[in-house]
Amino acid sequence: MQEFENVSAKIAEYLLEINAIKLSPNEPFTWASGWKSPIYSDNRLSLSHPDIRTYIKKELGKLIRTYYPDAEAIIGVATAGIAPGALVADEINLPFGYVRSEPKKHGMGKQVEGDIHPKQKIVVVEDLVSTGKSSLQAIDSLRDFGCEVLGMVSIFTYGFDIANENFKTANCTFHSLSNYNVLIDVAASNGLIKNEEISVLNEWRKSPSTWKQ
Hints:
By secondary structure, the chain is of the alpha/beta class. Helices cover 41% and strands 22% of the residues.
């Protein structure tokens, strides 16, 4: 347990260090959903930093080996989950494929790409989980394809209650290397946010869809 907590804090520290995650309580960002948010995440930036990329790859591999030792293939969720999915598949020597948000409108009309077969036991990889909606749509597509989805792993999650409820309803387990609560603790410890900003960040976390600054 202590080892996992150390990894979670290290991931958060790395993401903050390279600005893959930015905190701006006083000048919030606007997400595509229209939500106002004091945090913005682009974990794809980690791919440009070999040492961090390797650390994430190895820790995702340990996560999958620990919780899903029967995995037979790794699936990335297009598009941001493709790179970390391919990296961890290579790390643990498993086949890799990815799932599109919808079938291609040309060619073979595929939605699941790669040499992936029905009845395979797979683990799905995301870079980031917010509400879990798009992730679970990908899982539904894989189940429709015939795969046995063992669960999902991600680099980071906001840990919203709605996401936990959505995964529970979908009967899908989920594990993440790091999360919002750990990130705030690390940011505060490193002097990246002021004490008075912590309460703002915590309030947003409670109700992101209605939060206003």
